[in-house]
Design brief:
globular, 234 residues, 7 helices, alpha/beta, Rossmann fold, 9 strands, 2 domains
Amino acid sequence: MPLIEFDHIAKLYPGETKPALKDISFSIAQGEFVCLIGASGCGKTTVLKLIAGLEKETSGTLRKPQHVAMAFQLGALFPWLTVFENVALGLRQKGVGESELQRTVEKNLRAMNMHAFEQKYPADLSGGQRQRVGIARALAVDPEVLLLDEPFSALDPKTTAELHDDIIAIWHETKKTIVMVSHVIEEAVSLADRVILMKDGEVGSIFPVDLPYPRRESDNFHREVMRIRREFFK
């Protein structure tokens, strides 16, 4: 059985006449890394919000696990909390004991190379560091599905490449299901094992990507990017 399944899902926001999603159907298996791409307004972020439970479908059936966590652009951290307390927030809400909370926060900060900054505040961090903390916070609650909403869009190329490597390492280690929204075809092909191209609220094409990691330097990577790019701009 798929872990996530969209079965003829439509979404019409209140006050709108044009649906954000039009009768889409696709599934995501446990342990997959899927990237949604497409032009602005194509519906990819709406898909992510439906999986996160931030929005409710207008029609159709959505099957998904309850335990889902999302990392937003630039981390979306609470500025009045330290790095440690930002990552601990979801654990405290779940009533996790202090000793387990301490271990879990430190483990996830180390995974994102941020353990030396746990007493810093978000204002003291770079954009890349804030994003690392946001991902650590999402991972700390041990979700079945990790959602990434254009997490690298505001970062410089070097920081983005480093975070790509970290995300792939975490995915391989944890075997978590990851669903990411991106507007960069090269990024999607670098990371995901399936790329879903959305157009005007519909699923345009689905591209399996079967390339060894790291991918960017291979000729096959560039061919895969061009294959998706041709469909993107049709």
